[in-house]
Amino acid sequence: MSPGPDPGVNDASGGQALTFAFQDAVNPGVTKREVWAWAMYDFANSGYTTVVLTTVFSAYFVGVVAAGKSWGTLAFTAALSFSYLMVMLSMPTLGARADAKAGKRRLLFSSTVGCVIATVLLAFTGPGDIVWGLLIIALSNYCYCIGESIVAAFLPEIARPDALGRVSGWGWSFGYLGGMLTLGLSLALVSWASGRNEPASQYVPYVMVLTAAIFVIAAIPSFLFLRERTPASNKPAEGMLVRLLTAWNDTREHFADFRLLLLCGACYYAGIAVVITLSAVYATEAMGFSMAQTMLLVFTVNIAAAAGAFVFGYVQDRVGHKLALSITLVGWIIMILLAYSAEQVWVFWLAAGLAGLCMGTSQSAGRAMVGVLAPQRRLAEFYSLWTFAIQLAAVVGPLCYGLVTWGTGGNHRMALLFTGLFFVAGLVVLTRLDFARGALARSRSAHNI
User: Fold this and answer.
1) Counting C-beta atoms within 10 Å of the first and last residue's C-beta, which end of the chain has fewer, N or C?
2) Which of 301, 307, 306, 43 is nearest to 175 (CA)?
3) How far apart are the C-alpha atoms of 207 and 188, rounded to whole Å?
4) Higher pLDDT, 51 or 73
5) Which helix or strand (DSSP H or E) is residue 39 part of?
6) What is the mean predicted confidence (pLDDT) over 361-382?
7) How many whole angstroms separate alpha carbon 90 and alpha carbon 199?
8) What is the reported pTM?
9) Is the pLDDT of residue 12 over 70?
10) pLDDT tens string 310-356
């Protein structure tokens, strides 16, 4: 990157200050176009989670495909849990192979193609197509999770160590804008179709195609401009379970604080997975929201999440990762209590806004924290371990929610209250984590692993 203008030259537009702020946050040689291209992947894939997992398809499957049966929520969460289990088992091996061949971009491309195709296939899910719907949602989510893990592994290559929080926040906040764009266009489509008294089985397929189209178009800059900077490790390939156990043993011997981070993330991400996956189901089943109301609710949550991710990234770099995450987890606990006790709609909207703020901050913080503790030459592999932890959480969290609703005869409020225990557990584990000690261990072990 060429040096910025002379600090003594006055720039009324503020462009000079922004240039120096950017250069202070990224590694040498990283351009604004590359950071934008990296953030565009967050922009691209957020539409999938916002529309498919959180809002439209989840509620559509439970209410229409499964015809509102009491086991519908459990079946949907079980399919997602299966996909998360597959990610847990395969991602460490895929990450290690990507590191060995400097092939993160290739893996990112193939996973994106898989998710886009599977999202289009969801359009062929109609009333009663339970097995088809479950298989395709599992496939699409598997591909999405691989891409999410790999794009995160580019963060330490782009951002300076003391700016991981804010750069991660740039990506997450930009990603929520992508989610809002996809959701806004989908909401317009749903409102138009509802005004013509069309059933969900007619307009949901068009929403799935729209989501896939935005994903593929917005992801193009990532494949054109994102660079692979970490050289190939050239490590020999290992079996799936062997690679997983080897990486896990390495955290025990050399990266104890990284292991605590994995445990902490597994705890609090279980709660986040419930909110992402089942907030639309909760809104419709417990609060009586219509599809259009639910989409507007999630749109509002995304606005709060974008603001939270952007602003809190700077706070995280200033106050430290541990304090920042502690504040976020306390916020999650307060949100759960508000939503559980909400009888009036405005109280639930208040809880939803708080959930958005906490979601943006906690997800962005997690990606940055891994960057602080992961060894430089094994980024994809160690981000894959983080993926393993959060996908384990994604199995446990929604599945527990589904079991509680099933065991209590459809009591979604009790299931949500149970979810709060995951955030409490994450806060307890966080008290034992020392980021300074973990960063020192990373530095000392860089030449030995």
Assistant:
1) C
2) 43
3) 10
4) 51
5) helix 32-47
6) 78
7) 39
8) 0.76
9) no
10) 887 788 888 888 888 899 999 999 999 988 887 787 888 888 888 88
* Two tokens, residue 401: 């929610």
DSSP of 40-97, one letter per residue? HHHHHHHHIIIIIIIIHHHHHIIIIISTT-TTHHHHHHHHHHHHHHHHHHHHHHHHHH
**Residue 440: both structure tokens together:** 């020192």
**Cα atoms in the 13 Å half-sphere on the side-chain side of 436:** 2
Residue 4 lies in a domain: no
Question: Which residues is 159 bridged to in the sheet?
Answer: 26
Q: With contact defined as beta carbons under 8 Å apart, do 189 and 33 qualify?
A: no
For residues 99 and 231, the answer to whether their CB atoms sit within 8 Å is no
- Nearby residues of 340 by Cβ (< 8 Å), 6 or more positions away: 413, 416, 417, 420
Contact 402, 274 (CB under 8 A): no
Alpha helix (H) residue ranges in 196-344: 200-225, 240-254, 256-286, 291-319, 321-341
Q: Which two tokens stand for residue 68?
A: 């509102």
**What is the per-residue pLDDT for 350?**
87
Which positions ≥6 away from 32 have C-beta within 8 Å? 22
230 secondary structure, DSSP code: S
Say whether pLDDT at 96 is over 90: no
Structure letter (DSSP) for residue 159: B
For the chain, give the number of residues.
449
> In this predicted model, what pLDDT tens digit does every residue of 203-227 receive, in sequence order?
999 999 999 999 999 999 999 998 8
**Tokens 């589904």, located at residue:** 402
Report if residue 45 sits inside a domain.
yes
In a domain, 6, yes or no: no
Distance CA 243, CA 342 (A): 46
- Domain housing 422: 29-224+239-445
Instruction: For residue 174, give the H/E element and its range.
Output: helix 164-195
Residue 446: the pLDDT is 56
Look-up of token digits 């009333």: 127
How many CA atoms does the CB half-sphere of 160 hold within 13 Å?
A: 12
Q: Is residue 11 part of a domain?
A: no
Count of domains in the chain?
1
pLDDT digits (tens, 9 = 90+) for 167-186: 888 888 888 889 889 988 99
Three-state DSSP at 103 gives coil
